Structure formats: C-alpha cells, structure tokens
Amino acid sequence: MSEVTSVFFASDTNEEPNDDLCDEFLNIIENYNESLSQLFLPSKVKHVYNPTIYARDTFETYIRKYCSSKKKIMFFGMNPGPWGMSQTGVPFGEISSVRDWLCIEGQVDRPPNENEFRPVKGFQCTRTEVSGKRFWGLFKKLCHTPENFFKTSFVYNYINQQWMTSSGCNITPSDFKMSEMEPLYNIGDLVLANVLRLYEVDTVVAIGRFCLLRAQKAISQYILLKNVKIVYMPHPSPRVVNNNNWEEKALHCLKSHDLLQYYSQGE
Prior knowledge:
Layout: H1 19-37, E1 47-49, H2 51-54, H3 56-66, E2 73-77, H4 85-88, H5 95-101, H6 130-143, H7 146-150, E3 153-157, E4 162-164, E5 170-171, H8 178-199, E6 203-207, H9 209-221, E7 229-233, H10 246-256
Parallel strand pairs: 2-3, 2-6, 6-7
Antiparallel strand pairs: 1-4, 4-5
Helix pairs in contact: 1-8, 5-6, 8-9
C-alpha cells in the first residue's frame, strides 16, 4: 500500500496563496486515491465511484478556483452522493448549484465498473441531490456570491469514493463495523489531518455524526492540531428523521459558534 506521508512537521510558510497550495492538495488527494485503490473493501461493496478521478476536470477546477488560499473553516462531509459529487466532481455537488452558482462545468467521464442503476451522466443528469441543494442554497442566501463563502471556508470530504451494492443501493463507511473500516480510518484520519495542516484550518464544521467522530479522532491523534475547534452541524440529507427544517438547524449551529459573521453579507 502506498504510504500517505504526514505534513504536520513541515515548516510553516508565509507565502501568498497561489497554485502551489492547490498542487499540494491535489498531490495529497492523488496519494490518498492510490492508497484507497489498494484497500480490501467488505464484500457487500460491489461498485466504487471516485469522482476525483473520472471527474478530475471539474474537481480540479473547484480546487484551483476556490481552494487556492489558506482557510479558517473546513466544512467536513463524508463522501460523494450519487446525484451530487458523483455527477459533478464537486463536494455536495448538486448540479444546478455547481453549474449556476459556483460556475463550474466541464467534462465528466464514466467510472469503471459503472452500476446500471446509478449511471454517471455528469451535468446531463436530471436527478437532484437534496443535500447539496440545501447546503449550497443556504450559503447562496447568506453569502450572495461564492467568493464570499470561500474567503474563509471550503468543503472537504473524508473519502473520495461512493460505494454501492449490486442493486445500486448507496453504502457508506458508517454502515460497517469499526473493525471492518479500521484500515480506511488509519489512512483517512491522517489525510484529513494533513489537509487541516495544509490549509491552516482553525474550525472544522463536521456535517453529521460520522464526520464529528472522525474529526475528533484525527485531531486527538496529532498534537499540533489539538487547538482546532470542532463544531457539529446536522447533515442536510432528507433521509435524516425530522430534517425538514435543516436550514434552521444549520443557522443555529453557525450562530451559536459565532461563525455566522463570516457569511452574513446583509441585504
């Protein structure tokens, strides 16, 4: 298995934000993908999509357009959704939000071993990812422009892969026992920590309980990151019980942790 090298003890840099930061981040992702490709997944997982590979064009556009500077806040998600990032290559990548608000559109290839029930049609997909629509819709309302959001923040997923059964049913790491996922967590926690270090993140907004736990584990394991604050935000998925008022819950999270100041642009 390829080694994922820690950058925690690399020297700090005061250089102005530029493409070098993007290159470092993309290198971390490429190394992570190499390690993921060598993992033995549970037999229930029959199909694996990795949009950072087959949608590299739009994923890299997202990184170079919006993640070329150090960030105070990371919004931390779990993995690509079938009608969002798996189609567009952008985290929480509901198609209209990516195309019309983030102004990202480009080539999306087909993944290997594509599931017939979950085809990748890229920006031609007619399905809507509700989680992404809710997430980006909230920040569009608050920030008005993507630039106002990305001045301080960015979105990162714990794992670049979407897993499915043969019937196309979505499976996530949280569906398995800890012992089954330990090899993934040993890699993913370190990668998360490396990304936090690279972007000099002060606050992690963990979207959902899975991400809260992984952020806690990663940060507690690395001494130099123990000053990073972790905030819990409910996941915007419509599958979460009693989640019709997700926007209200998300705003409460931002207000109660004094984060709304970074996004409220006024009328």
